[in-house]
Specification:
This protein is an alpha+beta fold. It has seven helices and four strands; from the N terminus they run H-H-E-E-E-E-H-H-H-H-H. The structure holds zinc ion. The site of zinc ion has 7 residues, from loops.
């Protein structure tokens, strides 16, 4: 299969690539751009054909009631290949007002517009350390505090809690409260 696809690719883009063939740097760049646009196109197509978290007309809510399927809500996500739009199933409970997007939960999508793979790359680039150490740190800081059973977080609440947790893990708890005392 790979040979057949390579033949077709070469046939489709041969002319364009022939212009930079003698220059490895430019050839590499042109090929990178081409594969990226193919990747984002294929990714968008696959995502469009998926259920994106749709679990039927109703799902159970933690309040004991039912969350009703409201519709598919679009969200722009930056992936390794570029931007895609994912239309995710959105559920809301009329009884308690809670809402959820199972696709985001299952894929570990945070409040940022980064896909899991891109978030990982950014994390690795941002921290000059081995990937194992970074993964361990993410698990230690985020997972242990926020992913306990029954927990549901708002963006503001989770950010504030994580800021405090980092503060405590860095042994800056006392100095933080000295700088930012609670209003009397
Ligand atoms: Zn509810």
């Amino acid at each position: 299969m790979a040979t057949r696809i390579l033949n077709q690719l070469q046939e489709a883009c041969g002319e364009e690539l022939a212009l930079v063939r003698g220059d490895l740097g430019r050839l590499e760049q042109a090929l990178g751009a081409m594969l990226k646009s193919l990747g984002v196109g294929l990714l968008q197509r696959l995502v469009d054909q998926s259920r994106n978290g749709y679990q039927g007309p109703c799902v159970a809510c933690t309040c004991g009631g039912w969350m009703r399927f409201v519709g598919h809500r679009p969200r722009a996500i930056h992936t390794l290949f570029g931007w895609i739009t994912v239309r995710r199933a959105y559920y809301c409970c009329a009884r308690c007002g809670r809402s959820k997007v199972p696709y985001d939960e299952a894929g570990g999508l945070g409040s940022e517009q980064l896909s899991p793979a891109l978030a990982k790359v950014c994390c690795l680039l941002a921290v000059d350390d081995s990937s194992g150490a970074v993964e361990g740190a993410c698990k230690h800081v985020v997972g242990k505090r926020l992913k306990q059973s029954g927990m549901i977080w708002t963006r503001a609440g989770s950010s504030a809690t994580l800021a405090l947790r980092i503060c405590r893990l860095n042994r800056q708890w006392d100095s933080f409260w000295q700088q930012k005392p609670l209003a009397a």
